[in-house]
Amino acid sequence: MDTVKTDFPYTIDSSPDYAFLNVTIPGGKTLRVEAEAMAAMNTSISMKTKMKGGLKRMFSGEKLFINEYSAGTDDAYIGLAPGTPGDIAHLYLENETVFVQNGSFLASGPDIETGIEFQGFKGFFSGEKLFMIRCSGTGDLWFNTYGGLIEIDVKDQYVVDTGFIVAFTESLSYTVRSVGGMKSLFFSGEGLVCRFSGEGKVWIQTRLTPAFVRWADAFRRVEKKSN
After folding, report:
1. Residue 57: which CATH number?
2. 83/18 Cα distance (integer angstroms)
3. What is the b/e burial string over 127-139, where b = at least 16 CB atoms within 10 angstroms of the residue's CB?
4. Residue 5 above 50 pLDDT?
5. 154 located within any domain
6. Do residues 119 and 131 lie in contact, with contact meaning Cβ atoms separated by under 8 Å?
7. Dihedral, CA atoms, 131, 15, 82, 169, nearest 10 degrees?
8. Which residues, 6+ apart, have CB-to-CB distance to 226 below 8 Å?
9. Cβ(127)–Cβ(65) under 8 Å?
10. Could you give the CA distance from residue 84 to residue 149 in angstroms, rounded to a whole number?
């Protein structure tokens, strides 16, 4: 895994708060991009949409639509904006696999195979779904976060709340459990955690979307009903 090597020259602007990805697609090449992430591009680029996930997607309720942007004979530019404010990370996989949170996949090279990995109902009681995107092969991979990004080298064991997980390497195994038993699961405000073991990397984000929604709800204007 290399964070410097790339087949698609790129720069990242406005990192880490509102990161924006600029990519050069070499002539005749194709870049796979998460749907709705394209913000700007050259007129010479053509696009088509593919759905990933198949029956797993239908039963899990998760979606993964990927747009394929192809350059003509000349190099072309595309600018990508994630849906949430935060940072963007780049990896160059070399016949490797990384699992990425469904909402964090941003873009990849054409030789990176992507598909939804349905982890059952491990996150059912907490409301936090453990649907990950399996990214395998050789080439560029970009993913985004809500908030800042922290890369953690796991040497033995490490525990992360499932909502904060952005990505992790296939070399790690994990179990999912509540923080302190069933009572804590329902009444503490804490959800489920992943206990990782082995050697590898975990990327976590510094903010949690449901927590922000709950915080913002207190400021929501509510119209009084007339008698």
Report:
1. 3.60.160.10
2. 10
3. ebbbbbbebbbeb
4. yes
5. yes
6. yes
7. -20
8. none
9. no
10. 13
Cross-strand bridge partners of residue 89:
143
Phi, psi of 138, deg, nearest 5? -125, 130
Report H helices in 25-90: 54-60
Q: How many structural domains comprise the chain?
A: 1
Structure confidence by residue, pLDDT tens digits, 182-210: 444 444 445 678 899 999 999 999 987 66
Residue 225 lies in a domain: no
At residue 206, what are phi and psi to the nearest 5 degrees? Answer: -90, 0
Residue 197 lies in a domain: yes
Reduced to 3 states (helix: H, G, I; strand: E, B; else coil), residue 166 is strand
48, part of any domain: yes
Listed in sequence order, the residues at least 6 apart from 4 whose beta carbon sits closer than 8 Å to its beta carbon are: 92
Q: What is the pTM of this model?
A: 0.83
CA–CA dist 65, 47 (Å, integer)? 13
Provide the residue count of the chain: 227
CB atoms within 10 A of CB 157: 11
